[in-house]
Amino acid sequence: MKKKGIKTVINGAIAVMVAVAYLYMFFRWSNGGKFSSAGLMTLKYFTVLSNLLEGAASILCVAFYIKGKIPRWLGTLKFAAAVSVGLTFFTVMLFLGPVFGYGGMFMGANLFFHLIVPVVAMAEYVMNSDYPVPKLSESLIAVVPMVLYGIFYVANILINGVGEGPNTNDWYGFAFMGFPASYLVFLFMFAATWLMAFIFLKLKKKLNK
Known about the structure:
The chain is built from seven helices and no strands. Helices cover 69% and strands 0% of the residues. The radius of gyration is 17 Å and the shape is globular. It has one domain (2-208). The chain has helices at residues 2-26, 46-67, 72-100, 102-105, 110-127, 144-160, 179-208. Helix 3 crosses helix 7 (179-208). By secondary structure, the chain is mainly alpha-helical.
């Protein structure tokens, strides 16, 4: 019962951090740093969408912990959410941070979206034995959010063009070597996301023993 309470509190804390950080960004109550916007325009960022997915999954976990236990489908949703925020974290650490500077990456709400929530969410998922260990075939489910976002990102550029300055539709700079390069970027991200899901699966299997 004590462990269940701790797990409930951690999920509740994740949900609260996501909600507060999103409200700060949505209403621009503080300087959001690089890759932040206001209002509904915040939803153009995978960073925001992945964190909202994690927040929603965490709220559901709190509800089911109060009710009884976590169903398998929710464990799968948590898996997809943890991988998604993990992609956000590693993209910031390995690509966006070096290119645009880490200062803007960890300013305001992005401190939570880029660092705190992803790290806590990844650790919580891997170490929480209440989430069933995914099957190898289920590892592809964790890639679905990234694929859907990639389709949206590329389609937006195809329809509206790349644009320039603050009005660019390539806000992550993935087409900096030309638009065709964005296809290669997302192909690489697909492979990296699936590899991350596979690693999570293996770590979880080992820790759950």
